[in-house]
Amino acid sequence: MNLEQAKKFLANEDWVVAKSYSETYPHFYLQRKKCSNQEKYEDFLRLIRKEGVVKSFYSKQYIYMEIDGFEYWEMGRPINAVQVLNKAIIDDSKQYRKVIVSEENKQLLRHNLNLREKYITELLSKKNHNELELTQIEFLMNNTRRIHGGGKNIIDSYKIKLRYNE
Q: pLDDT for 48-64, tens place per residue?
């Protein structure tokens, strides 16, 4: 997917206002299950990971794709586990953007997301899993965890002791 294809995809979707964050961080979201095209949804997630910019959200870091005054992001789960795509007006002057992300940490985040994606793909392709592998799959694919009140998200757990094959 290129930028023009992304713009067309994004314009054709029905974005929902995130009511629970209307005061603190107004934004919109698109649920995977309500997206008109699953392939384009995943292609756009890959575009974010490839072309997006790493920014802070308070002490956390995410990869954002900036298009026509909006930024789009997801929470760093494996592509096939991402259930929500977010959208907000770009405003890097806000307090949540005050933490500066070093180039080293930006590269580390991208590297670990790529390793994790490769690792979960390999795990899911196996026919039989041992107990440790099942635990790792459950952790990496868990899309029901809610991240409120400073809890950890999947990106915060990038130092988890999983054995990625580099």
A: 999 999 998 888 889 99
